[in-house]
Specification:
The chain has 262 residues and is of the alpha+beta class. The protein is built from 10 helices and 4 strands. β3 and β4 (251-258) form a beta hairpin. 23% of the residues are buried.
Length: 262
């Protein structure tokens, strides 16, 4: 959850700071946190986004080179928040007016970003580039299988009693519903929470898990990897596979374990 890259560490920081002011009976016993595909450090991540588009061969070498030559990270983050993250497949009607008085470099930059993310992406879901497209007329839920035409499968799943019991929900069943209404603006997109990670790691009292799915092309693995590398943490366990089954045969992905984070 890209915006979780902001509010998760910010909430953790609030808890940690307030714990220091509380009596022991009011302390929240926080052990750590995790964040997935989190937008964290825009100055580092922005070019990780457009690099990812090039590495997937979604945009051309020429478009990628123009972006790298003419764009700043602020140009890219402006484009992302105003044109790309409106959700789902990109269409031309999501294109908004650019700032006035563009420099020649910015003119080239935004033309390349337009070409790359709106013209080239077309009907691809930038939030899940490998997902199928829901075609008009496709119906129904398929039990226990993802269905891109259904918007409520996760809600149904997380409201199942057996799932809530497995997740150690207190006093199940409880009603779970997706939250909404969180305002994420251009200032947020260009604000870094990287210093919070430096603070947490210096304190040495929290465990941190950063995970990244490879279908997201707006906060992709390449972008996340850039800011984690910037932390310059000692590596405990270098790149290694993790498995989705207990017999260690089906690879689910790859991980690097650093001090205090994975």
């Amino acid at each position: 959850e890209s915006y979780g890259g902001h509010y998760v560490p910010e909430i953790v920081d609030l808890i940690v700071d307030n714990n220091a002011k509380q009596t022991p009976d009011k302390v929240i016993n926080i052990k750590g946190f995790m964040a997935g595909n989190p937008w964290t450090d825009p100055e580092t991540e922005a070019f990780g986004v457009t690099d990812n588009w090039a590495q997937r061969f979604i945009i051309s070498d020429a478009t990628s080179n123009t972006i790298n030559t003419n764009c700043t990270y602020r140009d890219i983050t402006f484009w992302i928040i105003n044109n790309v993250t409106a959700g789902g497949r990109i269409s031309r009607n999501k294109y908004v007016d650019l700032p006035l008085d563009l420099t020649p470099a910015q003119e080239s930059c935004f033309a390349a970003l337009y070409q790359g993310s709106i013209t080239t992406f077309g009907a691809i879901d930038i939030l899940s580039v490998f997902s199928d497209v829901c075609v008009n007329g496709t119906k129904g839920n398929i039990p226990d299988q993802p269905n891109v035409c259904s918007g409520n499968q996760l809600t149904t799943y997380l409201n199942r009693l057996d799932v809530q019991i497995a997740m150690n929900v207190i006093n199940p069943p409880v009603v779970w519903e997706a939250c909404g209404g969180v305002t994420y603006n251009q200032i947020d997109t260009q604000t870094s929470v990287f210093p919070l990670y430096q603070k947490f790691l210096a304190a040495k009292n929290l465990r941190i898990l950063i995970y990244s799915g490879d279908t997201d092309a707006i906060v992709p693995t390449t972008a996340t990897h850039k800011w984690i590398t910037k932390l310059a943490l000692p590596i405990i366990h270098d790149t290694h596979p993790w498995f989705v089954d207990t017999n260690g045969e089906q690879v689910g992905g790859f991980a690097v374990e650093d001090r205090k984070s994975t």
